[in-house]
Amino acid sequence: MIKLGVNVDHVATLRQARLIKEPDPVEAAVWAEHAGADGITVHLREDTRHIQHRDVSLLKDILKTRLNLEMSVNHEILDFACDIKPYMSTLVPEKREELTTEGGLDVKGNEKEVSEAVKHLMSNNIKVSLFIDPDIQQIKAAKNLGVNIVELHTGSYAEAEDDEQILFELQKLTKAAEFAKDSGMVVNAGHGLNYRNTKKLCRNIPFLNELNIGHSIVARSVFTGIFEAVKEMKRLIGE
């Protein structure tokens, strides 16, 4: 059974739009857990545009499942992560002007910087995952750094509009997942996944351990509540 990590960043986005206390992403995370989420993911950005340090600290204290902290290699964020000690830290690329993460981390092109961040986290007994494009060279670079968990960026698949392009992207993901698995790595995936495209991904990509899904679940929860939104996604993954 593929696990589901629920990203509650955009509950915080709504809260920060008014700079008030509601809706609380921590409360959303608790409801997501009750609905069957296998873990909670949050991205603590350098500009704290949505998730705040307070949110991460509270989540670490109250979650019954696992906290996956997405983060850049910024030294202050790294130090905070090592102090909080989430179950796992996922290193992602980050640009101030982007609306959301636009692609995978260039491990091969930033080996020294990424290596230092990986060592810093691992020395504090934090599992490390790298969010990368489904590219064999990036998987090799991740493995060379001693990382045994990768999260494959599914954005290109999610944005594909015709059957031919969807198949092409699925084949890229399949090849990457198989290579990572054969290299002894745990394979996660995420970005842009929703209630329309997740089932096809699960049926076609072998060796998936966990999907991290956020925006579509939060969007659906506006109409159904987050408990039902998470339960529905869990059903799709399990079909």
Provide key terms for this protein.
8 strands, eight-stranded parallel β-barrel, 239 residues, alpha/beta, 11 helices, globular
Report on this structure.
The chain is an alpha/beta fold and 239 residues long. It is 49% helix and 17% strand. The protein is built from 11 helices and 8 strands. It has helices spanning 9-18, 25-34, 53-62, 75-84, 111-122, 136-144, 155-159, 163-182, 198-204, 215-224, 226-238, and strands at 3-7, 39-43, 67-71, 88-91, 127-132, 149-153, 186-190, 208-213. α5 (111-122) links the parallel β4 (88-91) and β5. α2 runs parallel beside α3 (53-62) and α10 (215-224) crosses α11. The model has no long low-confidence stretch (mean pLDDT 95).
Q: Write down how many β-strands occur, each being a DSSP E stretch of 2 or more residues.
A: 8
Structural class: alpha/beta
Indicate the proportion of strand residues.
15-25%
pLDDT under 50 segments (min length 5)? Answer: none
- Chain-averaged pLDDT: 95
In helices, the fraction of residues equals 40-55%
Distance between the termini: 10 Å
Strand order of the largest sheet: 1-2-3-4-5-6-7-8
Q: What coarse outline follows from CA principal-axis ratios?
A: globular
Helix count? 11
What does the largest sheet look like?
8 strands, parallel, barrel
Quaternary state of the chains: single chain
- How large, in whole angstroms, is the Cα Rg? 17 Å
Task: Return the string of H and E elements.
Answer: EHHEHEHEHEHEHHEHEHH
